[in-house]
Write a structure and sequence with these properties.
Largest sheet: 8 strands, mixed
Number of strands: 15
Structural class: alpha/beta
Strand order of the largest sheet: 11-10-9-8-7-6-12-13
Number of domains: 2
Strand content: 15-25%
CATH class of the largest domain: Alpha Beta
Helix content: 25-40%
Distance between the termini: 28 Å
CATH superfamily of the largest domain: Aldolase class I
Length: 429
Amino acid sequence: MKLSRYSKTYPSPEDPESVILFSTKRASAVLVPKDLVEDIEAGRLSEEEQAGLAELGLIVRSDDEERQELLSYIQDLNAQSRSVKFIVVMNLDCNLACRYCFEGARKGKHYLSEEVAARFVDFVKTRDYTDKDDIKIAFYGGEPLLSADRIADISEQIKSFAENRGMRYLFSLVTNGVLLIPQTVKRLLPLGLRSAKVTLDGPKEVHDAFRPFRNGAGSFDTILRNVEEVSGLIKVQVGGNYTQDNYREFPRLLDLLIDRGLGPERIAAIKFDPVVNESSEFALPDFRDGCDSMDEPWVAGASVFLREEVLKHGYKAPKIMPSPCLMEHDDSFVVNLDGVLYKCPGLIGRQGCRSGDLLSGPGECRTSHGLDDWKNDECLACAYLPLCFGGCKYLKLVREGAMGGVNCQKTYLDRVLAELVAQDIRYGL
């Protein structure tokens, strides 16, 4: 047995005679004496030690065997999936005027029509549900709750279809939170609503500067009041988008949430992400305050700092896990409001990025999207591969204008992973 190539060794922050062994393919960590690493390399492990470390993915029989395991990892993941998932873009309209709007120049009064909604329901009904337990939809925008009636109509039909097959139908909302009122939530609950992700970009003055209403008024108070009123009805996750200039203000948001009674028992999880500058035809010309790449040193520092604050305040943060790109999931579809299919919400409306439509069905996009480009000797030898699998194709497209090749995460992970692993151990994740 030998040390896995997908393992990292880090000094213990508390015990100079110990090290942390972390498996990137199993997301497992263990604190061991320094000399155990020498025992692994010298082949001096007891049978009990071998069994324990192998179970954690930290030691393997051979490099070739492990290489094949990674080459088939995503295929195996797809085979084990028990859900079919859809992200449905209900509109590209919004009641806010965010400075960094993700939809950018695509935004406008464009809505998923009754005709496309019917086509989508038919598309859902024609999927293969062999060995599947769930149909899951994330309704997306623009602001999806501007299309609440259509969400209800779609959900009523798909819920009936799923239950007739002995399956569950669940849906979530990716919403700015302005229209997430109890009356709407109570209407949608019987139709399958389970959770909503709401964006709060820091404390009030920071959020309001970046996410005002169209008339310039701040939206923070409205959104926070709605979160207070619905967090007992559905799971509410909080997201937020930061820049280099404002990320250190975000802990004040966490303090405020707790002061308002929105502690970890009422907020399901919190995750903050950097704003990424857009460079395509959709870019807003007056905003360049985000990052151009995750390789920028400040992004690493902000990521570690904010995750520490989230955990320190008692909230759940995403655990370090193997994370294939959304595009790699066979049973995952992004449906644009015009009925065109994509593999990622960031691709909607972009030339050469479609992957089929509701009438003709999904098309093959592995080559056009470069989904197998990580299957090369350099990536397969990299300890970070299970956390990366070639990186985010959307960010690759934004930065370089094409999805081919890999969006290597090595520089970023070199800077953050030791700290993130230490956080997981410290907070018992």
